[in-house]
Amino acid sequence: MKPAPFDFVAATSVAEAVALLGERDDARVIAGGQSLMQLLNFRTAQPGTLVDVNRIVGLDGVRRDGDFLAVGALTRHAALEAHPVAREQLPPLAEVIPYIGYAAVRHRGTIGGSFAYGAPYAELPLVAVTLGGEVIVEGAEGRRTIPIEEFFLGHLETAVGPQELVVEVRFRLPAAEAGFGFREIAPRRHDYAIASAAALVQLDSSGAVGSARIGVGSAHPTPIRVNTAEETLIGRRPDAVALAEAGQAAAAAIEPLGATEADRTYRRRVVAVMVQDALAQAIERSREAGS
Amino acid sequence: MSKIDVQVTINGEVYREACEPRRTLADFIRKDCGLTGTHLGCEHGVCGACTVRLDGQTVRSCLMLAVQAEGASITTIEGLSDGVELSPLQQAFHDNHGLQCGFCTPGMLLTAQELLEQNPDPTEDEVRDRLAGNLCRCTGYEFIVDSVLDAAGRQAAVAGDA
């Protein structure tokens, strides 16, 4: 199991990488390689040229930018987990990142690569879909900002063009009173999840749900925000019945992936439970934030 | 396909070899540098046998190209012991029957060594969590977990004596 031959160019700037992607029609970007190297080893992917972006100075980094936490595409998962600005501004990241692969994978894997690959089980795309966010890509025409709602198009399919490079991922920072929750279940620890869910809830002064955002991962062809589940909660007291209904609404909204670990029926059931649990955690934290 | 020169430092020694861009770091270490202690199991990042330390951090050497490691400092299993003297972690694996066939052992040791550097007194759950990405088909993991916990205990005893 060895990759097929390819040309290899280590770009030293975003402009150089973008120019290479434009010049060569079967070029692919390699960053951390934690997904692409699998495809290369299996020869599922046989690009003519690999454009390595690992040596581009300044393509990594974390900073607050207005209402967003801006994460450079080359930022490694482990570096983001440990980053003081990320930990202070957006604690959910350090909470969710340990679920991503294994330590050795998080040392290499990059944020930009995770979004560009578009795998449904990827945790940070689910967080971005739930909190809100955007992805900045650069191509021959310059930069464009893609709202997260328009980014994930299908299974392993994103809005990034073949000649574009992801340069930054931006997570919308939640209100201080909002509570975040996350839950996932996998057959083996750190393996791909059967279903995952994230929730962001804000309670109003009466203790009813003022706003709710719910995302589901690993179960649908893309990470997906489930508005129908959110709508069941608005204005209601978040009791067990309300949470169970939201879970059911989420399970009904997805087109479940089928696989050996989990058939479609089972996956829907697990989605309902994951959503319920993520909501319960989010609500608990929203109460703590409000008190 | 033309070859590219790659220079890396492995276990303190400089290696400079020409290889095709498609050469994985794992194959480079084994075939070009002759260090066959790094094992290749699944070749797609699942089994953890090929784990090495790259500039201090564990990585899967099958999920990286040798050309991407240019200039890096790498530690492989051959760099763990001091000459013929086993490292405390290796000795603990030996004493606790932490290996049978030995295929997964290099990856287990490098992964566990990093854990103990970051967390000298891990709980059993923390050991299991960290080793979740390293597959062993012989031991059922029990003796591997025992070995890592024993090594942690020995380190603490040595530190206490000092």
Oligomer: heterodimer
SS-based structural class of chain A?
Answer: alpha+beta
Instruction: Report the C-alpha radius of gyration of chain A, rounded.
Output: 19 Å
Overall pLDDT level of chain B: 96
Low-confidence stretches of chain B: none
Q: What is the string of SSEs of chain A from the N terminus onward?
A: EHEHEEEHHHHHHEEEEEEEEEHHH
How many strands, which pairing sense, and closed or not: the largest β-sheet of chain A?
5 strands, antiparallel
The CATH homologous superfamily of the largest domain in chain A corresponds to CO dehydrogenase flavoprotein, C-terminal domain
- According to CATH, the homologous superfamily of the largest domain in chain B is Beta-grasp domain
Bin the helical content of chain A. 25-40%
Output the structural class of chain B: alpha+beta
Major sheet strand order of chain B: 2-1-5-3-4
CATH topology of the largest domain in chain A: Enolase-like, domain 1
Q: What's the CATH class of the largest domain in chain A, please?
A: Alpha Beta
CATH architecture of the largest domain in chain B: Roll
**Average pLDDT over all residues of chain A:** 96
What portion of the residues of chain B fall into strands of 2 or more residues? 15-25%
Report the helical percentage of chain B. 25-40%
Structure description:
With about 290 residues, chain A is α+β, with helices and mostly antiparallel strands. Helix content of chain A is about 35%, strand content about 25%. Chain A has three domains: about 5-50, Uridine Diphospho-n-acetylenolpyruvylglucosamine Reductase, domain 2, CATH 3.30.43; about 60-170, 2-Layer Sandwich (Uridine Diphospho-n-acetylenolpyruvylglucosamine Reductase, domain 3), CATH 3.30.465; about 180-290, Enolase-like, domain 1 (2-Layer Sandwich). In chain A, helix 9 runs antiparallel to helix 10 (about 240-255). The radius of gyration of chain A is 19 Å and the shape is globular. Chain B has five helices and five strands, in the order ββαβββαααα. In chain B, strands 2-1-5-3-4 form a five-stranded mixed beta sheet, with helices on both faces. In chain B, strand 3 and strand 4 form a beta hairpin. In chain B, helix 2 (about 90-95) crosses helix 5 (about 140-160). Chain B is globular. At the A-B interface, strand 1, helix 2 and helix 6 of A face strand 4 and helix 4 of B.
